UniProtKB/TrEMBL annotation:
Record protein name field: Phospholipid/cholesterol/gamma-HCH transport system ATP-binding protein
Superkingdom, taxonomy of origin: Bacteria
Gene source species: Marinobacter daqiaonensis
SUPFAM superfamilies reported for this sequence: P-loop containing nucleoside triphosphate hydrolases
Keywords for the protein's UniProt record, in alphabetical order: ATP-binding, Nucleotide-binding, Transport
Length: 268
């Protein structure tokens, strides 16, 4: 796996981030960077604030303090117009997909193109069919409604929607949750293939160890309100922190690492 971040300006720069809900401090002076072209995995125990961090970066949640620079600009200091322009350069795939159940797939994916890029309905639906093909869905699925699809197909459709406006950064929140191992592994391959082909960067919140090993250039571990470490898996695995040891060196972590090393050997 290629590490692409060296000596590049980060696309996303989070500095001194604080997020509080009442008495509960979720982030306390958190720093994190996302570099061009990389897939950054974000992990941590339940409730460590992975989703809150994602929401703070994409502008869905106003942090209590700190700065978030997105594509070189301070998100919180932008005018509403600039902010909405910047937010269009970010694609987000939420947990569960969040597709509109009353729209078929091509309508779901065309919607952001009509609303934000001003495309005609016909052009948007044509492009939506291209996006659906790009994520590996059969042509006829364009006219299906989300309820008519398998979990794996819904995930692919949600990915197509996140890619509708050709984002520079893609944010994924637990994209393989609920998929069987074969479906999850197919999603991992799709993600790396699309990243290699289109060159976007990925902020990937996940609990899925196989996904981490199969896709990530770097992994950031959240703990006690901060990023404990953000580095390659080889480095992260070696940290002495108890959660990291349990996560990466427990039975599931060992199995994922072993499977990854075997796949890497077979590919060489
Ligand atoms: N709008 C909100 N109001 C109050 N508390 C919130 C809000 N959003 C998140 N929280 C709290 O912030 C903490 C972090 O939530 P978050 O969903 O980011 O965790 P997470 O690391 O993504 O967890 P998981 O791995 O279980 O999905 C949780 O304790 C949650 O209850």
């Amino acid at each position: 796996m290629v590490s692409r971040q060296q000596s590049r300006q980060p696309l996303i720069e989070v500095r001194g981030l604080v997020n509080r809900f009442g008495e509960h401090t979720v982030h306390d002076d958190l720093d994190l960077d996302l570099f061009p072209g990389e897939i950054l995995g974000v992990v941590g125990g339940s409730g460590t604030g992975k989703t809150v961090l994602l929401r703070s970066i994409v502008g869905l949640l106003e942090p209590s303090a700190g700065t978030v620079r997105v594509l070189g600009r301070d998100l919180l200091a932008m005018s509403t117009r600039e902010r909405s322009h910047t937010e269009r350069r970010l694609g987000v795939m939420f947990q569960g997909g969040a597709l509109f159940t009353s729209l078929n797939l091509q309508e779901n994916i065309a919607l952001p193109m009509i609303e934000h890029a001003g495309l005609s309905r016909a052009n948007a639906e044509h492009l939506a069919r291209v996006k659906l093909a790009m994520v590996g869905l059969p042509t006829q699925a364009a006219l299906n409604y989300p309820s008519e699809l398998s979990g794996g197909m819904v995930k692919r459709a949600a990915l197509a929607r996140a890619l509708a406006l050709d984002p520079e950064v893609l944010f994924l929140d637990e994209p393989t949750a609920g998929l069987d191992p074969i479906g999850a592994s197919a999603f991992d391959s799709l993600l790396t293939t699309l990243r290699d082909a289109l060159g976007f960067s990925v902020f990937l919140v996940t609990h899925d160890l196989d996904t981490l090993y199969a896709t990530c250039d770097r992994v950031a571990v959240l703990s006690e309100g901060k990023v404990l470490v953000a580095d390659s898996l080889d480095v992260v695995e070696q940290q002495s922190d108890s959660w990291i040891r349990e996560y990466f060196h427990g039975p599931r972590g060992r199995a994922a690492a072993k499977a990854h090393r075997q796949t890497t050997r077979e590919e060489q």
